[in-house]
Write a structure and sequence with these properties.
The protein is mostly beta strands. Helices cover about 0% and strands about 30% of the residues. A hairpin with a 2-residue loop joins strand 13 and strand 14.
Length: about 400
């Protein structure tokens, strides 16, 4: 067979003589991290600093964004995102990398204009806010600000003892000082007597009006943890809801409450961006998942934090079940991404979008904080109030 290279490929060997087009790299070292979510819905290999894949592709050869993956209604533009989707540029720092993952290029260090700043090369504090002896390297995403002024953001850091298993952190300024909330390599709260450790942290958090952060995180494999951490149970949601620091809301491979034994949490949709503090030690969160085991349906779940380390989980809506009050229709697609996620107000009431079948109509639904069957707010084709 004859293989024709279109260029800008990378091979760790000689490519059997086929990779001879412009931009092809042979006998190269891509310097990849282990396969991980890297804050996307599918796993990717992250490029490490020094990889020969960095900046080695040709951005002009990108295909058109035919499916409008960034939601800006421009299907003619060149593909703007990498495999992870919205929020992850396909071209960073003026060049494009080879592969599915685009390495974020850090901004040039700048001096703080006054007060407390976060800059490349500046001190990265520990969980108490004290000097950790480590420095920020890449502040990987802009900050996320709560209604009360709290700021949350992800960053990487460098310094003594920092390696590929512990160089990522998540930080929050709580109005008093900047503190580290989580770090890869740290024990993940509530993962058993022999704790599992965080292996990846998100770039985009959930943060509510009161500044409480919720993180969708990945755990490192660990046969010695309790239970053993494998690829079947290595993701979960941790939250400050409840007021006592991070506690786990739910974890991959958990039994779904209220459903037959063996219906387990298979994977999360796209993090958890809908949360509310409803009391000093109570809160609400809503997020989508896909089941495994006894079912492969997708569903919208509500987690109700009712005390310290106590969470009740319930199903709000589920694919292939009847859409309440809409004759002959069932839920099929329950929206879940950063721009089209379920939304929650400060009292814990939620609204969410869904596509129905067999009509494939779009619809919006409401569920109060007290729970119960969701109510259709509007279904495509309904008469618009105040119009004729």
């Amino acid at each position: 067979a004859t293989i024709t290279s279109l260029g800008y490929n990378l091979s760790t060997n000689g490519g059997d003589g086929f990779l001879t087009a412009t931009g092809d790299l042979v006998n190269a070292n891509p310097m990849l991290e282990a396969l991980a979510l890297n804050d996307g819905p599918t796993r990717t290999h992250k490029l490490l600093p020094g990889s020969q894949a960095l900046g080695a592709s040709n951005a002009a050869l990108r295909p058109a964004d035919a499916f409008d993956l960034d939601g800006d209604l421009d299907a003619a533009e060149l593909l703007p995102v990498d495999q992870r989707g919205i929020g992850f540029k396909r071209v960073s720092g003026g060049s494009m990398d080879i592969g599915a993952y685009e390495f974020p290029q850090p901004a040039a260090p700048v001096a703080s204009a006054g007060g407390e700043g976060v800059v490349t090369g500046g001190n990265a504090p520990d969980p108490t806010g004290a000097d950790s002896g480590l420095d920020f390297s890449i502040v990987t995403r802009s900050g996320f600000i709560a209604e009360n002024g709290n700021l949350a953001f992800a960053s990487e850091f460098t310094g003594p003892g920092v390696g590929t298993s512990n160089f990522k952190g998540f930080f929050k300024h709580d109005g008093t000082s900047l503190k580290r909330l989580a770090r890869t390599g740290d024990n993940a709260p509530e993962t058993g007597a022999t704790a599992a450790k965080f292996s990846d942290l998100p770039l985009i958090p959930g943060i509510n009006d009161d500044g409480q952060v919720t993180l969708f995180a990945q755990l490192a494999p660990n046969p010695a943890s309790t239970p053993a951490t494998t690829v079947d149970n290595d993701t979960g949601l941790w939250s400050e809801l409840g007021g006592t620091g991070f506690q786990i809301l739910i974890r991959e491979n958990d039994q779904i409450p209220g459903l037959p034994t063996g219906v387990l949490l298979g994977r999360f949709g796209s993090g958890c961006f809908a949360t509310a503090k409803t009391g000093a030690s109570t809160g609400q969160a809503a997020f989508t998942v896909t089941f495994k085991g006894g079912s492969t349906d997708g569903a919208l779940l509500r987690a109700s934090i009712i005390g310290v380390n106590t969470t009740a989980v319930s199903v709000v809506a589920r694919e292939n079940t009847a859409a309440p009050g809409v004759s002959g229709e069932s839920f099929t697609i329950l929206n879940s991404n950063y721009t089209g996620a379920v939304r929650m107000d400060a009292q814990g009431n939620i609204v969410f979008g869904a596509i129905l079948k067999p009509s494939f109509k779009t619809s919006l639904w409401y569920q109060p904080v007290t729970g119960g069957a969701p109510v259709a707010a509007v279904v495509a084709g309904d008469a618009a109030p105040g119009t004729t």
